[in-house]
Amino acid sequence: MNIRAAEEESAQEIHIPADIDWEMLDKSKFFFLGAALFSGVSATLYPVVLVKTRQQVAQAQISGIRTAFSIVKHEGFRALYRGFGTSLMGTIPARALYMAALEVTKSNVGSATVNFGIPEPTASAIANAVAGLSAAMAAQLVWTPVDVVSQRLMVQGTHPSCSSPCRYVNGIDAFRKIVKTDGPKGLYRGFGISILTYAPSNAVWWASYSVAQRLVWGGIACYFRKKDDESNDNGNSSSSSNNNNTIRPDSKTVMAVQGVSAAMAGGVSALITMPLDTIKTRLQVLDGEENGRRGPTIGQTVRNLIKEGGWLACYRGLGPRWASMSMSATTMITTYEFLKRLSAKNQESLV
Length: 351
Prior knowledge:
By secondary structure, the chain is mainly alpha-helical. The protein is built from 9 helices and no strands.
């Protein structure tokens, strides 16, 4: 994250640790550590994703907490991780594609926009948006089939409202049955709407993240300036800046700002793209051709949702998705920045 580029107004007052671009990374360490770190993040957040998915396919509005308790009561605690093995196997290559596309695009677009004479804060936001867009599109090539299979497993339970007509033993069995029923295209059901959901969502998220960081750092700078003014009025010397009037935040402060900015961006993205995510989930979970009848189209899915609960039905699962995206964004960005620092070729250059 080019925080300094997002800090035009307070760059003379806040010194942020050096940014790390694609050329500075040890690629093998970057991908190996990334697979391990993000697998842990996925495992932590998976139950929230499962609850959100159950809410989206339910015929009536049920709160996330009631849904979670119902799953544990009727199916046991392990049901909160149904389909996780399949999801994890797809997360590793999808994340690798995502990170590579993100860093390469951001580096190239960032340099190009600056060369065109665009101010650094604007160039940073543009580079982040384009990088998020390309990264999401690349990752969906791998993630959509995994998403289809894992979501079929997620909604397969003993509770009547969540049971699927087709029973799956595991991810491999689900994969085989989906291909047998729908052909290879069945694994890419909802691919178009997945792109429409995740690509703009990622573009909005990365651009919002860049802007949010600038706002937060600007707020911190104002806070320290006000604190210094009050100290000077009282005849005391300032302890928050050095002789050059430069604030040097520690690593904990930097991570806190990154986390807060990521949570803000994640909440905005969740709210904007929630209807598309609900439609996508319904399309991917419903069985395909059965008894000569094709599965519903996007239009039919929307009409069914509105019939069930009006336009608010498109926002079923918003609470868990908002929480999931905010927590995921916070943990993802802090983990991602930590990963980049661990993977940097020259650690001494980061101070």
